[in-house]
Specification:
This is DUF2333 family protein. The protein is an all-alpha fold. About 60% of the residues lie in helices and about 0% in strands.
């Protein structure tokens, strides 16, 4: 018996095969782009970069220039690193990635905190002084939602924030003492470090909770008259979900990457203040501790071993470096606040 094969069958097979090839090629392309985009920017020299960005005719880095220029460079890196800004992507490969968006959020938090410190403290001589107009606008621009891709996109708001920082930077070096100022004082630096201290403390706690542990309730410790809205048990188990621990890890990587550069810039701009308190070595040690957090990751994934178990626990290693740096920041802030 002869079987008659419809003439359209070979065409259908060719069509399915072609579609499979196209989908396979697209999959390979997306995976390649994910690998390419999932690369953290390297470290740079804040003082060298600040000198390179001085306007023509200016040869001296005035107080505050290095700090603001570094903040601007860190914010600019969010938008122009390899792959661009990924946190608000709705198309492949960015929509499938979570490590780099969490890294970006860690950097963004530090950008927001220092911009607010510039607005409230570093650019003002006293509480009753007038806010700097550029910093007054830059602060809310960087606090815009970090995941908006349309009406108005996150990138456009952050570009406006960078532009406002640039405006403040230009006025710092224009020679007009009434146009813009940066006050390198011990109290201003201590106030910003207090915020950094809280950020690092939170990251350290979340990283350390990767193995789960019982924690005593110390929320009201030290103040017998203190109260809180809702009562909490005296002991509670604190644990970061296995599904979230790599998110916290990369957020910490981003935050510490930004802090390394910002602290190096502060080390330059506040050199006389630090020397007067003999605090230069303390800040240098903080930077060295944070630099350890940027070591290369040789494992293909973030391991979450239990304490002294067989497998490594990258979160605990990161928490160790952050805790050491945070303890040193607490000591440094205490030193700056002494008369």
């Amino acid at each position: 018996m002869n079987v008659v094969i419809p003439k359209s069958a070979p065409r259908r097979r060719v069509g399915w095969r072609l579609a499979a090839y196209v989908l396979g090629a697209l999959l390979v392309l997306v995976l390649a782009l994910m690998w390419w985009f999932d690369s953290e920017p390297g470290l740079f020299d804040p003082v060298k970069e600040a000198r390179a960005g001085l306007p023509a005719g200016n040869t001296r880095l005035v107080e505050g220039y290095t700090t603001v220029a570094t903040l601007k460079r860190v914010a600019d890196t969010l938008l122009h690193k390899r792959g661009g800004y990924l946190s608000n992507d709705v198309m492949p490969p960015g929509v499938f990635m979570d490590n780099m968006p969490n890294w970006e959020f860690g950097v963004l938090v530090q950008v927001r905190d220092l911009t607010r410190a510039l607005r409230n403290d570093f650019s003002r001589s006293q509480t009753q002084s007038v806010e700097d107009p550029d910093l007054q606008e830059a602060d809310p621009l960087f606090h815009y939602a970090n995941d908006r891709w349309i009406f108005v996109s996150t990138e456009s708001r952050y570009r406006q924030g960078i532009s406002r920082l640039d405006g403040y930077l230009e006025r710092l070096v224009d020679g007009d003492p009434y146009n813009a100022q940066f006050y390198a004082r011990a109290d201003n630096l201590a106030d910003w470090l207090a915020v950094v201290e809280k950020r690092l403390g939170s990251l350290s706690q979340r990283l350390s909770a990767s193995v789960g542990r019982v924690q005593a309730d110390v929320d009201l410790a030290g103040d017998p008259a203190a109260t809180q809205t809702k009562p909490t048990p005296p002991l509670r188990e604190v644990r970061t979900s296995w599904w979230q621990i790599d998110d916290v890890f990369y957020e910490a990587r981003g935050a510490t990457w930004a802090l390394i550069h910002l602290l190096k810039a502060v080390e330059h701009d506040f050199a006389s203040v630090l020397a007067n308190k003999n605090a230069g070595p303390s800040l240098a040690q903080i930077i060295r501790e944070l630099e350890q957090t940027q070591a290369a990751i040789w494992s293909p994934m973030i391991l979450n071993g239990r304490g002294f178990g067989f497998f490594a626990n990258h979160s605990l290693v990161m928490a160790n470096f952050i805790s050491r740096a945070n303890a040193a920041i607490i000591d440094l802030r205490d030193l700056l606040q002494r008369g």
